[in-house]
Amino acid sequence: MEKPSLEINQPDTHEEGKLYVVDSLNNLNKLNVCPDESQHSLDEEENTGGTGENMAGSNTGNQCLFFITFILTLIISLALVSFVIFLIIQTRNKMDQISSRLLSEKKNIEELKKINNILLKHLNQSGIKD
């Protein structure tokens, strides 16, 4: 039962090697079994002492930040789409105004042509009689 004094004084490298191998196998098993994100959370859980409070807090914070960013993006997109629709409506109204002006000017020009023709006929008729 008693160990010789030489064995007690020597460092037990064989036991340390066994522990190192077991740790390596555990890590390899975690890599094979768990996806990357789960492995990352397991590593953090080991670092925090297994409570997982930091992970839950940061995960909730990340989700909150994601939703706030998502809502802001939606609001900005809605504002941009509304502005584009407003510009389209304004452009349509301006085009309608311009086309109505062109039609009225076209009618005025046709009336002026008719008046011009009547004047020319009248001048030609009066010039022939003199």
What does it look like?
- With 130 residues, this protein is mainly α.
- It has helices at 5-9, 13-33, 36-47, 53-129.
- It has a domain at 62-129.
- Helix content is 88%, strand content 0%.
Layout of helices and strands, plus pairs?
Elements: H1 5-9, H2 13-33, H3 36-47, H4 53-129
How far is it from the N-terminal to the C-terminal residue, by CA?
A: 156 Å
Assign an overall shape: rod-shaped
Strand content: under 5%
Determine the mean pLDDT: 77
- In total, how many beta strands? 0
Computed Rg: 45 Å
Largest sheet: none
> How many individual helices?
4
Name the structural class.
mainly alpha
Spans of at least 5 consecutive residues whose pLDDT stays below 50 are none
> How would you spell out the order of helices and strands?
HHHH
Observed structural traits:
88% helix, mainly alpha, LSME1 protein, 130 residues, DUF4577, membrane, rod-shaped
Give a quick rundown of the structure.
The protein is mainly α and 130 residues long. It is built from 4 helices and no strands.
